[in-house]
Design goal:
The protein has 976 residues and is an alpha+beta fold. A hairpin with a 2-residue loop joins strand 22 (738-746) and strand 23. Helix 6 (150-159) packs across helix 7 and helix 12 (255-274) runs antiparallel to helix 13 (280-288). It is elongated and about 180 Å long. The relative contact order is 0.07.
Amino acid sequence: MAEENKKKTAKKHPPRKRTWLNRVGSVVKWMFILGIMGILFAGGAVTGYITSIVKNDPVRSEQLIQQQVSQNAITGFAYFRDGAPIGQLRTEEDRRLIEYNNIPQIIIDAVLAIEDNNFYEHDGVDVSGTLRAVKQKLLNESVQTGGSTLTQQLARRVFLNLDRTEDRKIKEILLSLRLERFLSKPEILTAYLNKVPFGNGSNGYNVFGIKAASKGVFGQDDLDKLNIAQAAYLAGLPQLPSKYSAFNGLGEFNETAFNRAIDRQQLVLRRMLEENKITTSQYDEALTFDIKGALAPHTAKAYTTYPYLMLETERKAAEIMLSINQDKDGETGTADDTNSGDDPVLLEEARQQLMTGGYRIYTTIDKKVYSAMHTISDNNENFTKDSKSRGKEQTAGIMIDNKTGAILGMIEGRDFNLEQMNYATQMVRQPGSTMKPIAAYLPALDSGLIQPAGILDDAPIILKDGSKGFHIPKNANNRYQGLVTARYALNKSLNLPALKLFNDKVGIEKSWAFAKKLGITTIQDGDYSAKTGVLGGLRYGVSVEELANAYSSIGNKGAFTDAYMIEKIVDSQGKIVYHHKVTPEQVYSEQTAYLMTDMLRTVITEGTASTVKSNYKHFGDIPIVGKTGSTQNYADVWFMGLTPDVTLGMWVGYKEPVNTLQGDTQKRQAQSLWTKVMNAVIEKRPELFVTPKFTQPKGIVKKTVSAYSGKLPTDLTDRFTTDLFNVKFIPKDSDDGITKAKYITFNEINYIPQEGTPDEFLKERIVVTREKPIQDLVKELLAAFPAMSDHEPLAYYLPEDAKNDVPTEVDPRVDDGHAPSPATNIAVSYSSGKAVITFSPSGSPDVVGYRLYRSLNGGPFKVQSILMAGEKTIFHTGTPASTNAAFYVSAVDVAGLETTSGSVAGGATATPNPTVTPIPTVAPTTGTEVIPEATTDPGSIIIDPGTGEVPLAPGIDGTGNNSTDPNNAGGNKNKK
């Protein structure tokens, strides 16, 4: 009960009332709490949003930022030999760096006035500037400024792409703040002015950076020479470089864009005035300045003016850079090892390094030489008209300094738009006879296997041919001349002597080893089994550069210096990263070089280079020597010529070897172009040709030797030749190539006579012993013919001096034991009042010849003349028509049996009685034997052995000074 009473008596309190002040405080409190929560939420959202944007971006260290900001793609340039610019390396951009101290204040003021007037006050982001830009944009105010600071623009260009996205803007702001932490204001400003684009320059390249812009737009290298108007013009371009560029991609003037740029320039000037960077008078003066008149004149890109040359410079320099890079990486190879360019990926990386690394490439190309050469190749009148089926007649040429190997000039082709391949350095074609000196004569001379007066046999050789059974090489003149001197063989470019040197005397292995030492790199394994390789029968061929390079060793006295075109490469800091070193290698002796030079001299004066001889204008001043060459069907024609100072190699043909040169003009086109190029170069650069003659070294002597064997003459020797010798290889043995023998000739081949053959049909003369007797050659030919689908008659292959060959076999005609059948159809006619008797030959196979009998005024018949069997069946007697003469012909066999003809020609009527009585020996009538005639051709000189003296080939004297050579001063260029 007590508990219940207590509950009942408990006092109840009324609810507490809230005042208005309490209510306001509560609202404020909750608003604050909610605000804090909102801020935290918004901050978290923003933070999350920003984090999501930049989560994949790396946190760039100070080192990385410094590295990337300072990294610039810099334009590279190529230069001629004298330092004159060829042009900038292949890129659509022109970038040139400048340091902060070299930036004029007027440029800085103009750029900051229009792009970032609070540059020195903000920390990467200009809030007030951004708000101002937004206001100007919204209100479409006449004066508008960009919202991005220079730092933001730099961050965007270095680290971000240029797409206008909100994501990019946030990244840009954050990067700008970071850049400002690690870079000074001058560093940021310098980087900006080196990287920002300014549109196209007057040559069409996109110019990047204020220095390239000054050069490209106003042609001004020195920024200090820019005035306020020009500075303001350039400062206005980066906002919209393509819109404001006064030049298009070809460097042509764009009036509309220029006018827009002028409007932009005037805006920059107003901002400069507002920022108190210029005075009112400077402002007014700048507005009146003739910007259009100050623009740089239009210039063609180097790849338009010198397209071939720029590509070749780029290619060769990239190979060098690749070698340098490999050396740095510890790989094998040297800076001069161009074979390192086999890896196309690495080579392309090296090329890109050159294109963007600000390298300066100094070439060996002489601008005047190059231009002179191209005046010839650019003149269509110097060439055959284009053919619908064959295309354009192409040419390539290269001129090399003999002593250094420096390439002074080249003709790379006729139309870059038609064909970008460099025909002088990249094309390989069959060299034809121009390979003979390199792989045959030079190694043979140097080893003493042959000397200019040495004897070679221009007689056929039979080579195996898988498709045809056998192949018999021919000469271009379609004849074989037999024993000739080495000089004569080279003069006339005879194939067989060269083949015998290449295959037999020197040997293919040694010949190609020698050629490789002279820079011929295209020889393949299969070429060692190609017996006609010395005539140009290689798998691939050679380049004009390599062949000319090999010939230049002759002018360099036997020392080979590898040809080169890049003199040095300098990096963007001015450091020489590559400098070519001339490293000559003495491949053959000075004496060999001089002998080869003198042999090549007579190729021009007495040999196949008649077009050069006719058209060269400087015989009296500058000596020349050289060698012609052509391939089968004239798919390629060459001329390799040199002076004591330079070598010029020329090639002519069509792009596809299947298309051949036709007609005498095209077949001599290489000679023709060579002389035109040489004449033009001498006219433009005479100072290159300082050496007046090819200097004769010690150890060269003149000697008269047997023209049969090239050895010392004997009492039997009746043919001599006098020429130059290396004193080491003067012959010591006496002439063993001749002997005196009695023989009979049948089908142009000499045989040992049978015992009963009448002496009158025999010849007793000096005959020649050759390495391969004609009888052996005939056997080989007759054995090969059945396996050949196509061949000439046997007589075609017999050398012209076959009748002088020593007999080694007995006359093959067999006596049948009977008198021969008579000659028939005897007839007399008169030519120039003299009797000519014709007849039909006997049908007997053992006939050795015919006797002509004559009766005068009815008197007895007497032997008048004889003819050998196989010769023409016609007697020229010299008997006057007024004489009462009668004639008959008898056939005589190997046993001496004779049968007279059954009829008499002339006035007599009695038929002569046949007889088998041997007729007294009658000396052969003059003309029944072929005796070599005297000639002034080198290598085929005949002199009276009693005198012991004879003039040398034109241009050779006993001192070796070539005093009568039209190549030297005072010479007669018309001398033959």
